[in-house]
Request: fold
Amino acid sequence: MFNIFNKGKKRQMNRLIITALICAPVILPAQTIDNNQSAPGIDWKIIQTAHYRIIFPSEISTDAERVANNLEYLYPAIGKTLKTKPEKWPIVLNSRNAVTNGYVTLIPKKSEWYATPGHDNEMSLPLDFYDVLAIHEGRHMVQTDKNNRGFNRIMYIFNGNIALLGMQYYSVPMWFFEGDAVGTETALTESGRGRTPSFGMEIRANLLSGISTPYHKAYMRSYQDYFPNHYRLGYYMTTYVRRNFGGDAWNRVLEMTAKRSYNPFAFSQSLKKVTGKKSVAIYDATMNDLTSLWQKQSAGAPITEATILTDTKPDVWTNYKYPAYREDASILALKSGLADPATIVAVFADGREEKICQTEAVGRISYGKNLITWSEESPNIRWANDVHSDVFIYDLSKRQYKSITTNGHFFSPAISPDDSQIATVEFDSIRKCALVLLDAQTGQILQRFPNSDNYFFRNPSFSPDSKQIVFTRQQFQGVALSVLSLETGEVTDILPESFENIQHPVFYGRYILYESPYSGIDNLYAVDTVSHERFQVTSRKFGTFYPCVSSDGKRILFSDYNVSGHSLAEMPLDSLNWKPLSAVFRNLVNYSEPMIAQEQGIGFFNEEKLLKNRYEIRDYRPLSHLLNVHSWYFYPSSVNSTFGVISNDLLNTTAVSALMTYNANEKSGGYEAYISYAGLYSIIDAGLRYDNRVSTATTFSETEEDYWTERGYSIGFRIPLDLSVDYHNKSLEVSTSLSYLSVNRREDTQSEFDGKVIPVSFQANYTWYDTPAPRDIYPPHAFSVSLSTSHTLPNSDSRASIGSTTATLRFPGFAKHHSFGITGTTEFQSADDYRFASAVQFPRGYEVVDCNRLYDGALTYSLPLFYPDFALGSLFYLKRIRATSFIDIGRGELGAIQKNYTSAGFELWNDCHFLDLLAVPVSLGARFSYRLDEKNWLINFIFGI
Reply:
């Protein structure tokens, strides 16, 4: 009930009502769908099994049937140690995306798998990629269903999947989810990531170098020092618990946590009940356990001498990968790290470095006489789920780079010594793999070699005479090392299929050099192509990678890992110094070994044991499945109560939300509904709103009631475009919307507003920035511009218009990670008895006031101050303190009134985490503004994500 004492205030209230109605829908309801769709035209199919629904493009039906069989085979085992069998989950197989990935989500409930195996990353395993996803993502499904109990279940009943997802990540740390999934993939197969020495290499280097990283710094990570991601941390922590407290330990922890998940410390407290240790103590015990095991492993291992060619103790963790000798005695390599984005550099003998070009290369860089080549992801301009992989070349003489393929599916390119041809792996949208030769200048396919068994190829490399190509091939029985004769087309296996993770082979005379974890640490090996006898070439402490032989064959160059990153290293190359494989000191740290017995035992996931059932393949019609309600909410209140539902379809083309409201004071209700459809090139957003309203005004002598209805309809169109090329990230979104809003009073009431407002709006946003280094506060080079305009149509009963422009330019400051920023803003507005909401930032230090014209120019300078890496228990973790100084010069006009707004000051920001939530880093700060005209200071608290 409103206690309004006179009609003047009543008229003001009516104006406020209509202002709110106009301003809110102009931008349309919250847009709940992005551009992450597959391109139209896919013939979608579905397989229904007892426990899964597999949705896939028709061209990969054979793969989908294998996935169905493997999921059913895994079903009894995948949740054994969590004592949970997954409920029926939808699986979407995406064959058009060149990204190596898979994920599980609850909004909506599904798991989506991309088709492309890892070519040169931690997913480069001697396993079929879909087999790995079946186990890893299958375990995530189990974890999610396991968490749907206790207080989490109560939240699910009232709010659906959105609450379950939120509670899951609120109550359980990310390192558990990913670490437990990696452990499961390792225990159920012959070669999961946990068996790979390189997976734990960075942690091993830290521990054996005497570096002790506190738990919160290891988990939340740091800008100052490097610690690997939560997959690695989680694998070792979850495995430690299972090694020492049994296979069902995590089952008990999750059950107790779910019962009290409202408590942010429930996970750590439950862990203590099961193990006697909280999270920090488990981490410390894990690191102590690993230190002991890795010290024993390295104690008897011989170390081959090598010359380190780069700084052995850099100020920040830095990597030099994919090295190659150059004729001018310099070395080319891909440099990256905490302080550097991925950049090809030339390293000279005196320590100087010359930047060649920044790149977004995915995997290996290959060098010829004068050309450099690599592959990188090429996004579709509109369909984010339709990502290609194309071949790029850089001409050292012209200092230019270009893409020589378009909309391709090419990976791991290798250039011939004479720069004429490129050997590359083609893995297309129907998951067919081929080794192809491209013209190095035009990208034209010169030859495609047959692959009737559809082996998956990796890491091709030319022989010095360009007559042979060495590569690895794999299917379901591990990886083999093979050589292709370009003269005859014949393929010869040098090493047979096995689960030894062989990578990056290169020719050296009658030998082939390659990487292998054979000894328990990744090192370089050689195999005689005639006798097939094998030798160990290097035995370094932490790991050596990416071999390159000098042109005279007397030296070998490689990346040697140490606690400061991958360094360039070199040593003489003499086969007389190699050690026969039979004499190699092998000391494997099979940390996951106890889990194998806890699961299904050795040889569980064996090709001969897997199911070979045939399934009925049916059509899947996306238009018939657009409505898929996954979340709902009911918020009772003494004044306003709301019930709503949220729907997203499995292919991310349609988002729907609807809600009903009831106002107890007015004894009236209303409803709203919004829909976004992204199956067309333009995303369509539409919404409607209807409310019955009652206002009671009490004067000194009487009570008056006004009854009216508020109706709103809106429709909008937006086109999000990804224009990115290489490391230049560019996006453009253009949108327009039309709204119809009306207020209709009953004839027997006294309401002074009755009419309609029809606002139309247009907006365009363009953003361009270069990929930054992890330490960069802002990208070193960036530009953005936003244009917007809104106005009411002539047949509206009220008139208003607004137009605004904001442009920002960023460029490097005086030191690394510093950033200059220049922003210019203009806004023009015409208003009568209401105003559109301003779309631009008001000069800092001033309260926002209405202006018909606003001009603002700002200059900022941002820099990091400290990297405290300070933890206040599990409550708070502070990663970085940074500052921004600014000068704002603004001018506002309202009719004949003009006012200048000039301020200068600074902002102090804290980049931090709360309550051990890795997924939600936040920025908190304070702004100190000195207003030059008023000659006083103003302090505001600021917040960002």
